[in-house]
């Protein structure tokens, strides 16, 4: 990687942008689109420091983005004494995973609402409500996304034409939800994508009136939304092209048990099915989904959960390395341009323990990468980020649910698998690479001990299997 600098002097402060509702892509859509209406409604320049339209502001540190990574980066700056009038931040960042969990509970089941889940409550930290930022002397700068960057002049331009000079820049723009093209009905009224609070609000108002819900995609977003939809007592179908759900994380056997749990809750599955078209009814709203092969499924509300793309558009074609999809960084989140960093979902970083470049769309990584980057930026910390992939999901957690489920995934889903337990009440899967390496719980995943495979296979319970695994750890890792 080219020359990198992570130590520009601390003089002024830090700015942070975060469009609160409409994603940047939608913000630039023509005025006929729903996204543009929400953009016009919510984009308000609220900070007195920025009310002068074309005024140039200078900040030594600027964060672009206002999501999970930005919230944790702001906290780390504060912990290092870098607030006190010197930080400018946009809409207070929140813990995004809540949007498909507590946020979608039916209205009589105490749904989560802001300010309850502002960062950093997700990791047991302080709730950084707008008041928190105020108290810390952090200016709020409401929605005005960055649209371009001038690397030579070290300036950013926002959608409304404001110019901001930066010393060091942290890009934390996350991802935008992948969409179906308009020409196959991807933007029909009643078709939803979930990335931010405005998306979740719009879905909640559809769920209030819905009868037949179809979820497209068998990933964690689709499965969390399906669990919520049945809490609203709605006819719920999940459609996906693979042969089992969560194919990137689950084995077929694990997926089958998970599907069974959903079926017991009334969810129907159409597996191995590809969508041709989303079709409108006479009122212009979504009415049906046409599948390849000609069959049709009725729906008045559709949620598309088919993945996400890194939000790199303002930073493309300016010399940043985006060849891996996101913005490539080194083990301290430095890009190939001195003084520019990238963290969270948008960063393609060296995943040290698996010796490859990866982009990780997990909240745990967003938090840790933010903390690592800011510490490296503000102190002499030089060690390389050494991340153990961790992902979790929680479903059916609303009041009155028969069974609340929480699962966690550590490491990489590579190798032979051994499954212990029958999901009644627990189940664990161990991925064993070359017959000798574990990947499940953090210690096991990180130290990858040699293990007695037959003992593990013969374990009669998850507890016994974990005991077998634990005893194979080196003494210092086992404690
Ligand atoms: C609905 C949902 C549920 C999830 N559930 C889980 C889960 O259960 N477990 C888990 O591990 N992970 C989960 N995730 C993933 C997790 O939330 C993300 O990995 C995490 O939010 C990434 O943080 P980030 O700051 O990189 O990006 P984000 O949180 O997406 O924040 C990016 C921010 O940058 C802003 N932005 C984009 N472009 C610009 C621009 N040009 N100018 C200014 N601002 C810009 C965006 O508006 C946004 O505010 C979930 C994600 C979603 C969407």
TrEMBL record:
Keywords: FAD, Flavoprotein, NAD, Oxidoreductase, Redox-active center
Keyword Transmembrane annotated: no
InterPro entries reported in the protein's UniProt record: FAD-oxidoreductase/Apoptosis (IPR050446), FAD/NAD-bd_sf (IPR036188), FAD/NAD-binding_dom (IPR023753), FAD/NAD-linked_Rdtase_dimer_sf (IPR016156), MDHAR3-like_C (IPR048618)
EC number per UniProt: 1.6.5.4
Source taxon at top rank: Eukaryota
Position of the signal peptide: none
Enzyme class: oxidoreductase
Residue stretches making up the FAD/NAD(P)-binding domain: 61-369
A Gene Ontology term for the protein's cellular component: cytoplasm
Record keyword Oxidoreductase present: yes
Domain Monodehydroascorbate reductase 3-like C-terminal stretches: 388-435
Pfam families registered for this protein in UniProt: MDHAR3-like_C, Pyr_redox_2
Single GO MF annotation: monodehydroascorbate reductase (NADH) activity
Named cofactor requirement(s): FAD
Family to which the UniProt record says this protein belongs: Belongs to the FAD-dependent oxidoreductase family.
Name of protein: monodehydroascorbate reductase (NADH)
Native organism: Morella rubra
Organism classification: Eukaryota, Viridiplantae, Streptophyta, Embryophyta, Tracheophyta
